[in-house]
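User: Just a sanity check before I run the rest of the batch. Below are the structure tokens for the first item. I only need the designed sequence back.
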């Protein structure tokens, strides 16, 4: 089940979120204003009366259509603000929700990680890098974890290669020739891609772009997930695993090798 709310509110509540919301709003200790605040929080902190009714009915509050929502919020004195057609949670309302159900709406590790990735992405000025990470974020938000894992890795290896091409190409060629007798001198990205990505990581480690621990994690966790996600198989990939993948690439590739164009 998926609920799409309002032409101006693009929030979609999937079945797992609706199930969690049901468990909260049907608690016997909550008043009507408490339930409305929880619904408003589920809408992202703001919403119209019709959106509150729609999400309320979707979680089993069948009588909500008859509630005098304006009067309920009015009597609660300050828990919400009325901005145009929308209600917004005010600071007293946020504190009330935190007191009622402190664990329900606290940011999850996944949410925090995605927020950090978004924050870093907002500062990327180099177009190609930005496109890769932006597409990875949008795939994650669209509940496409495999696509997100692949796109995030492609952006990361692109960035590592770009660092080699701009700064370390002679050293890379020398180290590659030492390791691989058949190596032919590279002068472009296409030439670098004659080498397997796992081999590229090995040579990048040899020339000091990162240490053995980073190389091991990038290869086993990140490249491994990219390969598993990009080929037909029975591996189940959830948002927690991909969030860890994004976090690893963010802290070990996207940030330290950020291009300032």
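Assistant: Here's the designed sequence for the first item:
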């Amino acid at each position: 089940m998926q609920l799409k709310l309002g032409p101006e509110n693009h929030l979609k509540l999937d079945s797992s979120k609706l199930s969690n919301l049901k468990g909260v709003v049907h608690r016997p200790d909550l008043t009507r204003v408490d339930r409305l605040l929880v619904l408003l929080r589920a809408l992202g902190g703001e919403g119209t009366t019709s959106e509150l009714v729609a999400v309320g009915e979707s979680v089993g509050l069948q009588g909500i259509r008859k509630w005098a929502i304006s009067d309920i919020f009015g009597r609660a004195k300050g828990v919400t603000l009325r901005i145009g057609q929308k209600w917004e949670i005010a600071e007293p309302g946020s504190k009330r929700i935190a007191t009622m159900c402190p664990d329900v709406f606290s940011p999850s590790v996944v949410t925090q990680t995605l927020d950090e990735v978004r924050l870093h992405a907002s500062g990327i000025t180099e177009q190609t890098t930005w496109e890769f990470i932006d597409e990875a974020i949008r795939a994650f938000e669209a509940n496409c974890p495999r696509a997100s894992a692949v796109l995030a890795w492609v952006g990361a290896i692109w960035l590592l290669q770009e660092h080699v091409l701009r700064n370390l190409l002679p050293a890379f060629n020398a180290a590659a020739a030492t390791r691989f007798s058949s190596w032919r001198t590279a002068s472009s990205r296409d030439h670098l891609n004659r080498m397997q990505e796992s081999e590229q990581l090995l040579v990048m480690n040899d020339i000091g772009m990162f240490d053995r621990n980073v190389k091991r994690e990038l290869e086993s966790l990140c490249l491994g997930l990219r390969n598993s996600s990009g080929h037909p198989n029975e591996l189940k990939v959830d948002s927690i695993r991909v969030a860890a993948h994004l976090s690893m690439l963010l802290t070990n590739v996207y940030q330290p090798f950020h291009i300032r164009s």
